[in-house]
Specification:
alpha+beta; 3 strands; 89 residues
Length: 89
């Protein structure tokens, strides 16, 4: 039968570079946001530590192209709403 192995070949990995200031928006309180990204998209999302002196963090998303697309759009909306929130003050 076409088990889980059938789709496994379709897994790819994407690396996003996000400003360190946006990391809080992606993670959320106690990691709630990134947990949502994982649940809704089904993709694996990993946040790498920033390199020395860098003001960027690398977010690694692994999954099918569809999963990656969903994960990216959810994170974009978190970043956008986070940016709005910080602009209010």
């Amino acid at each position: 039968g076409a088990g889980a192995g059938a789709g496994a070949a379709n897994i790819s990995t994407v690396q996003l570079h996000v400003p360190s200031t946006s990391v809080g928006s992606i993670l959320g309180k106690g990691g709630a946001n990134i947990q949502q990204v994982r649940q809704f998209s089904g993709a694996r999302v990993k946040l790498h530590n920033s390199e020395e002196g860098s003001n960027e963090r690398t977010v690694e998303i692994a999954g099918t192209p569809e999963q990656i697309q969903v994960a990216q759009s959810i994170m974009q909306s978190f970043i956008a709403s986070g940016a709005q929130a910080s602009n209010m003050y």
